[in-house]
Amino acid sequence: MTIIRPLRRQWRWLSRVLADRMPTGLFGRSLIIIVAPMILLQAVMTFVFMERHWQSVTDRLSTAVVRDIAALVDVIETYPQDTELETVRRIASERLALQMTILPNEDLPPPAPKPFFSILDTALSEQITRQLKRPFWIDTVGNSGLLEIRIKLGDDVIRFFVRRSQASASNTHIFLLWMVGAAFVLLTIAVLFLRNQIRPIQRLADAADRFGRGQPVPEDFRPRGAAEVRRATVSFLEMRERVERSIEQRTAMLAGVSHDLRTVLTRFRLQLALVPQSRETEALTEDVNDMQNMLQGYLDFARGDTGEEAMDVSLTEMLARFEGEAETSGKTWSSDFSGDPTIHVRPTAFSRVLSNVVSNAFRYADTVKVHGFRNKKWLFLHFDDNGPGIAEGSREAVFRPFVRLDEARNLDESGTGLGLSIARDIVHRHGGQIELDDSPLGGLRVTLRLPA
C-alpha cells in the first residue's frame, strides 16, 4: 500500500497536467486521435527496423570486414618479410578497401568507454573476438566516415582504417526520410480532411449562438458535412422555426389582448375626464395608469428585442441622460468608464436595460455610482447604490417572471414582476450576463457583463 499510494498521486498529477495541456477544440482533439496512433506505429516500426533489419545487415557487413582483416593478418604471419608487407598493403588498399599500417613496438591504447547504443561496436567486437582471438582496440564513436581497428600481433600493432559504410548499414537515413515524408503527407491529408468535416459543426455552433442572441442566421446556412451533422443541422432549423413561430404567436396574442384592453382603458380615461375631479377619480386615474404600465410591460416582455439591428453606441452618451433625472429627483449621480466606451448593441433594447437598473436605484437609494471598464473579451458595468439591497437568497428569484419581493426592493417599477426578466433576456441575447451582489456603498450592486 505504501508504494501504490505515491503511484496513484503521480498518476493523478500526470492526468491533471495532460488535461490542462490537451486542446479543448474538436479539431485539436480529433487531430491528436489521428496523429497519436500514427506516431506510435512509426515508433514501433522504427524500433523493429533498428532492432532487426539494421542489426542483421550490420552483423553481416561486420563479419565480412573482420574476415578480410583476419585473412590479411594470416598473410602477415605467414610471410613476415618486409618485401611482402608492401604487397599485402597494396592488396588491402586496392582489393579490400582497407588502409593498413604496421606500428612496430607499440601497445594498444587504453580501452575507451563503450557507447550507450551502438550496434556496430558490439558486432565488430564479437566478430574480432570470434575470428581473430587476439587483443584488439576499435574506435566507432568518431564523427568521421572511417572506423579504426587495431590488432595486437606480437610486439607490433596492425592498424586498419575502414569506411563506416563497409561495416554498418548506410540506408538508415533513407528509411527515416521516407517515414518523416509519409508522416507529413498523412498529417496534411488529415488536417485538410478534418477541417472540411469540422467546418459544418462550427457553422452549426455559430448559427445556434447567433439564434440564441436573437441575431439572424446566415442566409447560406444549410445542412452540410457528415450524416450526423446534417441531421443535427436539420433538427436545429426545425427547432428554430418552432421557436420563432411560438414567439410570433405569443407576441400576436399579447398584442391583441393589449390592443383590446387599451381600448377599454381609453374609454375609462374619457369617462373619468367627463366626471368632476375628486379624490375618488384621482385614485381611479392612477389605477388606469398602472394598468397601462402593466400592459406595456407584458408587451415588452413578449416582444423582447426582436427586429432591431445592432450598432455601435457610446455608453458614456447613454449614461449621460440619467444626469438630468438624478438632478430632478435630488439624487447623487456619478459615472466613469475606463477605456473605449463604444459597444455593439441594440440601442433601444439596451437602453431599456439601463433605464430599468438606474430607475430602480433612484427609487431606493440616494447615491448611485456607475463604473465601467473592459478587457480583451468583456465589457463590465457596475451599478452601485446605498439602498436597502436584496437578500442573497432572493437574488436569483427576482430574475423569474412575475416575481415581486414585497419585503425588499423590487426591480420592476410597474409592479408586474417582469423588470429583471426583461433585462436579463436582453442581456442574454447580447451574449452577456447580469448579476446581483453587495455594493461597497452598502446597498445593491448590479453588474452587466457584455462581449467586448
From TrEMBL:
InterPro entries on file: 2C_sensor_his_kinase (IPR050980), HAMP_dom (IPR003660), HATPase_C_sf (IPR036890), HATPase_dom (IPR003594), His_kinase_dom (IPR005467), HisK_dim/P_dom (IPR003661), HisK_dim/P_sf (IPR036097), Sig_transdc_His_kin-like_C (IPR004358)
Answer whether the UniProt record assigns the keyword Ribosomal protein to this protein: no
Looking at its record, which EC class is this enzyme?
transferase
Query: A Gene Ontology molecular-function term?
Result: ATP binding
Transmembrane segment boundaries:
31-50, 174-194
Membrane protein topology class: Multi-pass membrane protein
Q: What is its EC number?
A: 2.7.13.3
Say where the protein is mainly found. membrane
Task: Give the keywords, sorted.
Answer: ATP-binding, Cell inner membrane, Cell membrane, Kinase, Membrane, Nucleotide-binding, Phosphoprotein, Transferase, Transmembrane, Transmembrane helix, Two-component regulatory system
Q: Does the keyword DNA-binding apply?
A: no
Lineage, top-rank taxon, reads Bacteria
Reaction catalyzed? ATP + protein L-histidine = ADP + protein N-phospho-L-histidine
Domain Histidine kinase as annotated: residue spans: 256-452
What would be one Pfam family of this protein?
HisKA
Subcellular location(s) per record: Cell inner membrane
The UniProt record lists the HAMP domain at: 195-248
**PANTHER family assigned:** SENSOR HISTIDINE KINASE ENVZ, SENSOR PROTEIN CREC
Put simply, this protein is called histidine kinase
